[in-house]
Automatic annotation (TrEMBL):
Keywords for the protein's UniProt record, in alphabetical order: Cell membrane, Electron transport, Heme, Iron, Membrane, Metal-binding, Repeat, Respiratory chain, Translocase, Transmembrane, Transmembrane helix, Transport
Enzymatic reactions: a quinol + 2 Fe(III)-[cytochrome c](out) = a quinone + 2 Fe(II)-[cytochrome c](out) + 2 H(+)(out)
PROSITE patterns: CYTC
Name of protein: Cytochrome bc1 complex cytochrome c subunit
Domain Cytochrome c: residue ranges: 46-129, 148-226
Cellular compartments annotated: Cell membrane
EC number: 7.1.1.8
Amino acid sequence: MRFLSSRRRHPAAKLLLLVAGLFVMGASWAFLAPSQQVSADTNTTQQIAQGKALFAVGCSSCHGLNGEGQVTEHIQGPPLVGVGAASVEFQVSTGRMPMSKPEAQAPVKPTRYTEEEVLALAAFVQSLGPGPEIPTEEMVDPGNLSDEDLSRGGELFRTNCSACHNFEGAGGALPNGKYAPSLRGVSNLHLYEAMITGPQQMPVFSDQVLTPDDKRAIIGYLNTLHAKPNQGGLALGGLGPVSEGLWAWVLGLGIVICFGIWIAAKGAKAR
């Protein structure tokens, strides 16, 4: 008993007990920790690797292997570090990227990638540097907005967006061969992503400028506006006074010219 008591009071006993306790805690955590986190990390790593391979084939010729960008006589690929996954999802899933040739503005066209490949490319670019992430379905869903929210969304749209996109989102021309595209038929996800990433000449509307609720209100307003049936009449592209004034001028001036020619011809015959 004296031998056991002396062993228990040995100076190294506390250190051994501490080491043993840490070992037991580590083993317990490794055994009891959920495997979902490990699986999620593995899936993310695989997705980034897939995106990197796709990026090297389809994007690196302009943007560089690591998204550092390239600016030469024939190539103008901006750096992608920090642009975020939302920007990639918007540009690639709408077919704007990759561009087939340098243009004033990348047009919408059928995408070359599947949804899985688009998400992989987005994950790789997101890994290069923090940027806006792809919004969740709840963030872009305007389903529970009130009439007051929709009215506020219309006011926000007319204040911040209508100068380029027209008061009903029909789009319009901009300087230097660029244009604001029509917003009809654009998905809620892409509307939200455009506001947080500022594609091409569009400014970025951060959460400090337009809160997430403001963005949802704008999306809800556009959905409501574009769901309204045509009540009849010639819409003339929905461009408002510009197109209406143009046609009034062309038709009105044309009638006056024709009438003048008719009077002149009649007067010549009378002589």
